[in-house]
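Good morning N.,

You mentioned wanting to compare the apo and holo forms, so I went ahead and generated the holo version with inosinic acid. This is what I fed in:
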Amino acid sequence: MELWIATSNQGKLNEFKMLLNRLPLQIHAQNELPVFSPRPENGDSFLANARIKTKALKSVQNKHWVLGEDSGLMVAGLNNLPGVHSARYAGPHASDAENNAKLLKMMAIRQIADRKAQFVSQVVVFSPEGEEFLFDGSLEGHIATSAKGQAGFGYDHIFIPSGQSLTLSELGLAKKNQISHRANAITKMIEALGPRISS
Ligand code: IMP
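and this is what came out, ligand included:
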């Protein structure tokens, strides 16, 4: 069975491939298509944005299973920002390093003592018949005082999961894939759809 993933984020794609590798699936991503124009992610929730990306890919791959995800970081002391703006917090084409630097700067300027944060993942799956399935996951933790580690992407370098003393980036991908928001959501998906999507 083919599963098409609606993402152009290589870090996310690697994680999805690892998380789904116990299913006998051929995994493809939108950037394998010669022509594909993603739609603007202008929703005001993770679910709205996950639907936008998944439906855009489904409109050109409607014979296969299609999976899309919107995810982000919510920082308690910043009124849950960057939230749905996580990918572009420091500007429309911001790099991960720029987003991390802006977040640490905002926490310093505003002297925010409450460093609690959570990652959220909202997954949307469409079957070839057009049924929609929703799965979510989260990972609690707090924001480090500086960026540390080489692995991962996004805010992995400044996020310390609850019960750990290292950033997600320092912990590495194998550990991240046991505990992450994305892993939680995909575990739920495999429980609900695994046999059907593999047949
Ligand atoms: P999306 O591709 O529009 O869902 O953007 C999600 C953004 O949220 C990413 O670009 C990252 O900045 C952030 N993010 C989501 N999941 C993770 C993660 O697992 N680690 C680090 N940052 C993440």
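The chain has a mean pLDDT of 96.

Happy to go through it together on a call whenever suits you.

Best,
F.
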